[in-house]
Amino acid sequence: MGRKWNNIKEKKASKDANTSRVYSKFALEIYVAARQGEPNPESNQALKFVLERAKTYNVPRVIIDRAIEKAKGGAEENYQELRYEGFGPNGSMVIVDALTNNVNRTASNVRAAFGKNGGNMGVAGSVSYMFDKTAVIGFEGKSADEALEILMEADVDARDILEEDESIIIYGEPEQFHAIQEAFRNSGITDFTVAELTMLPQNEVALDPESQEQFEKLVDALEDLEDVQQVYHNVDLV
């Protein structure tokens, strides 16, 4: 797969260490998921998934509870889920997922971030066909062989099982996310280092140092936008 998930998360954690940005993005995502169905993760799969992700990022419980209570209160804030696609230097590809209550503002800001950092926006579908939506589950305490045995006993399929540093990373179909996680919970795993539904590139590209520096500025500019929730790309930055 070519993605070092632990290194990626450590880099994000370091970048966000002195800000509340990651928490505010999760608060909005939790609020929107809770508004889309029942504000109860047991009956709302979208909310359950967001809460699983939030746990791996150590989002404080008070922020989670506040977002859910806000949704229960029937606040009239309407957000749209948007996806933008574009290109960076030397064949790099980028997907940007956003939640916004102002489409014009978000589109303008995303376009400006691309334009100021050596990239350009593409049309819908110009990039996403080169990515696969994938469930990624990570944990410690098992070997790859043990992980495979647990999945087989639970009759759950996975695309791939890799060992990264001291962790096991499971790649699976999106609809298998909860089944994969439940299989390992039943085996005694209670903490997950990764719990994501992501867009994985079918092929990664390596950039020369100058292009990589420019590309990282592009990704940083996009991730810094208030309305942007996720940025996916096909560049090997690790």
TrEMBL record:
Entry's Gene Ontology cellular component terms: cytosol
Coarse class of the protein's main subcellular location? cytoplasm
| Span of domain TACO1/YebC-like N-terminal | 3-74
Per the UniProt entry, what is one GO biological process?
regulation of DNA-templated transcription
Where is the protein found, in the record's own terms? Cytoplasm
Quote any Pfam family the record assigns: TACO1_YebC_N
- Domain TACO1/YebC-like second and third: from-to ranges: 79-235
Which SUPFAM superfamilies does the protein's record reference? YebC-like
- NCBIfam families with a match to the protein in the record: PRK00110.1, PRK12378.1, YebC/PmpR family DNA-binding transcriptional regulator
Q: Which family does it belong to?
A: Belongs to the TACO1 family. YeeN subfamily.
Record protein name field: Probable transcriptional regulatory protein SAMD00020551_1519
The major lineage groups are:
Bacteria, Bacillati, Bacillota, Bacilli, Bacillales
